[in-house]
């Protein structure tokens, strides 16, 4: 109910009330409105004591030279104007039968002794004040001076002014206010004020609109922005491949920005461990997603895998190895123990130290399936720290991608492998070309670069419609997710010319 009030009723009120005020002001009560205001009403005092008493002396003299005994003179200037919405015609003035005057300006306690029309907004209005127009002045028995004004037709904003000289007839102190009498059909008479300020109505309407805008702004800030269509909310934990971890973390960050109700947690410990956790927890009731750079194999029949991207991998060496390019055959010989010194493959006189990922790693599976033609020798059980301190050739294993890259960078004569973007971001390493081919999307598309794998997303069965797992998978294969995949040097499956490249392979 409150949402309906603020989202519908408040904006409608912000439109209806000003429109209603406009219609009331200019159509109902102001359609035909004759306004008048006193612009000057001042006593004439002190003139005889000044050096310029001629005007007052002439006013007091009669035509035969006698002098009137005028007491307490005043001068009044009155403006009569059409301040309505339509034209006022002569027929709009309602008067007594056979009366030519349309309005009557009264001055209590004063007598009119002279008057003149001083200003016409339209010179054509002068004909309205001819001798037979009804324009004149008179005195009522009650001591009220009256100026009779003719039925002047006025267009919108037309006006004229009357200047009158008056004499007090009774009373003392401030003069009573003048009074305008008359009837205008379809509207009325209104005593107006000067237009130097802002009308009370305009102030009230402006204040009301400011309050409406402020209220809507506060509500707009207070209410959360609705999530875009297709957003899913809830919690999702992503586990699995450390090689694809940067891509997934960045994609999850962007998804949370777009869909504020989504929250992600991570547990990247390798592809095999990710799939095992997904299997053991039965998908965490839909809150668990695994990423792997190896297919699921026969050990995980309940898992559903979806290819996401073709991922480029690189072989990396310590700079002391003295090589920049290796053939696929040389890489096989190095990892299968047939070469123990780098000088045998054109490098420095330096023992070869192989740094491997543990069995079950998706990166190791990709490396062995793409570049090796037979299994590697058994691991000797030596830690990488021990291998680094020794002087002979050897091999060790690491659990995570970052550990492998760190060990290769710290161990003289070391060789290893990882996802290409991670390798490029690690200082102290040399990414070797393979048979002269660089790890680029162009080389991969041309069919020349041999070291690549497919990154998969795994669910325990299909995610429920509307769940965060289903929404995040759509995001990963959509345009935004593909942009992230490309940024990290990989090739979205949607970009692959040969769909067979992304086809799941048996483990």
Automatic annotation (TrEMBL):
Residues 56-83 form a coiled coil. Keywords: Coiled coil, Membrane, Signal, Transmembrane, Transmembrane helix. Pfam families: PBP_like_2 (PF12849). Residues 230-478 form the PBP domain. The chain crosses the membrane at residues 6-30, 198-219. SUPFAM superfamilies: Periplasmic binding protein-like II (SSF53850). PANTHER family: PERIPLASMIC PHOSPHATE BINDING COMPONENT OF PHOSPHATE ABC TRANSPORTER (PTHR30570), PHOSPHATE-BINDING PROTEIN PSTS (PTHR30570:SF1). This is Substrate-binding domain-containing protein.
């Amino acid at each position: 109910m409150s949402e309906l009030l603020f989202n519908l009723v408040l904006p409608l009120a912000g439109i209806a009330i000003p429109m209603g005020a406009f219609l009331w002001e200019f159509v109902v009560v102001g359609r035909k409105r004759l306004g008048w205001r006193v612009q000057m009403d001042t006593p004439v005092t002190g003139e005889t004591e000044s050096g310029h008493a001629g005007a007052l002396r002439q006013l007091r003299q009669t035509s035969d030279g006698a002098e009137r005994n005028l007491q307490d003179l005043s001068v009044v200037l009155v403006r009569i104007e059409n301040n309505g919405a339509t034209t006022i015609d002569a027929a709009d003035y309602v008067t007594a039968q056979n009366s030519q005057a349309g309005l009557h300006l009264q001055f209590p306690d004063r007598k009119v002794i002279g008057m003149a029309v001083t200003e016409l907004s339209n010179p054509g209005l002068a004909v309205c004040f001819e001798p037979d127009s009804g324009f004149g002045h008179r005195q009522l028995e009650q001591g009220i001076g009256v100026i009779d004004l003719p039925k002047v037709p006025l267009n919108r904003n037309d006006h004229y002014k009357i200047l009158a000289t008056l004499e007090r007839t009774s009373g003392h102190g401030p003069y009573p206010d003048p009074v305008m009498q008359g009837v205008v059909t379809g509207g009325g008479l209104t005593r107006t004020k000067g237009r130097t300020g802002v009308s009370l109505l305009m102030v009230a309407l402006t204040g009301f609109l400011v309050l409406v805008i402020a209220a809507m702004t506060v509500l707009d800030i207070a209410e959360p922005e609705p999530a875009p269509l297709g957003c899913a909310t809830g919690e999702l934990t992503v586990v699995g491949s450390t090689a694809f971890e940067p891509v997934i973390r960045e994609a999850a960050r962007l998804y949370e920005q777009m869909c504020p109700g989504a929250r992600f947690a991570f547990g990247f410990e390798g592809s095999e461990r990710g799939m095992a956790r997904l299997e053991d927890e039965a998908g965490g009731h839909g809150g668990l997603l695994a990423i792997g750079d190896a297919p699921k194999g026969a050990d995980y029949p309940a898992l559903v895998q979806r290819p996401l991207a073709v991922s480029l991998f690189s072989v990396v060496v310590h700079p002391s190895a003295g090589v920049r390019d290796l053939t696929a055959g040389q890489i096989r010989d190095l990892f299968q123990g047939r070469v123990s010194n780098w000088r045998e493959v054109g490098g420095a006189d330096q023992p070869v130290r192989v740094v491997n990922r543990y069995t079950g790693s998706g990166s190791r599976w990709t490396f062995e399936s793409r570049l090796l033609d037979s299994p590697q020798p058994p691991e000797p059980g030596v830690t990488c720290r021990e291998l680094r301190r020794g002087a002979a050739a050897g091999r060790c294993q690491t659990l995570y991608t970052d550990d492998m890259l760190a060990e290769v960078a710290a161990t003289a004569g070391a060789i290893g492998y990882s996802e290409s973007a991670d390798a490029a971001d690690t200082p102290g390493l040399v990414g070797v070309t393979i048979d002269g081919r660089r790890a680029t999307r162009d080389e991969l598309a041309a069919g020349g670069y041999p070291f690549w794998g497919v990154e998969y997303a795994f669910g325990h069965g299909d995610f429920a419609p509307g769940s965060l797992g289903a929404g995040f998978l759509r995001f990963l294969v959509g345009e935004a997710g593909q942009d992230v995949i490309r940024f990290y040097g990989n090739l979205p499956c949607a970009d692959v010319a040969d769909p067979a490249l992304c086809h799941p392979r048996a483990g």
